[in-house]
């Protein structure tokens, strides 16, 4: 494990956002959703995520997630991802998303 300085951690913009809409992403190589999230002052952003094993589109709507909003945009096929949805791999390698357990204002920075 490589140790980092506090200033390195402070540069990562891990922000809370609320899922507004979730769409199927049939063009993805592995099953995935396109997700639209409101990050408050950081705007509404889209990403894709391979989270179809643990989540339905309906249960994601309104949920607060944690995303990295200061990565450059990334082209994923014909889709442009605007943030990184964070999560953890379970024992089968499927992603469990990082969520907020009590509501905070959209755009709140993880500290």
TrEMBL record:
Q: Which residues belong to any copy of the TRNA-binding domain? A: 8-111
Give the classification, highest ranks.
Answer: Bacteria, Pseudomonadati, Bacteroidota, Sphingobacteriia, Sphingobacteriales
User: Sorted alphabetically, which SUPFAM superfamilies does this protein's record hold?
Assistant: Nucleic acid-binding proteins
Which PROSITE patterns does this chain map to? TRBD
InterPro entries in the record, alphabetically?
Answer: CsaA, NA-bd_OB-fold, tRNA-bd_dom, Tyrosine-tRNA_ligase_regulator
Q: What is this protein called?
A: tRNA-binding protein
* UniProt KW keywords: RNA-binding, tRNA-binding
Pfam families per UniProt = tRNA_bind (PF01588)
């Amino acid at each position: 494990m490589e140790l980092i300085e506090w200033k390195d951690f402070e540069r990562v913009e891990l922000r809370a956002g609320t899922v507004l809409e979730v769409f199927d992403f049939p063009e993805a190589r592995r099953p995935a959703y396109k997700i639209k999230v409101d990050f408050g002052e950081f705007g509404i952003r889209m990403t894709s995520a391979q989270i179809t094993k643990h989540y339905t589109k309906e249960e994601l709507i309104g949920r607060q997630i944690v995303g990295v909003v200061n990565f450059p945009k990334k082209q994923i096929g014909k889709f442009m991802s605007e943030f990184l949805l964070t999560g953890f791999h379970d024992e089968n390698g499927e992603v469990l998303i990082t969520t907020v357990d009590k509501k905070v204002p959209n755009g709140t920075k993880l500290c």
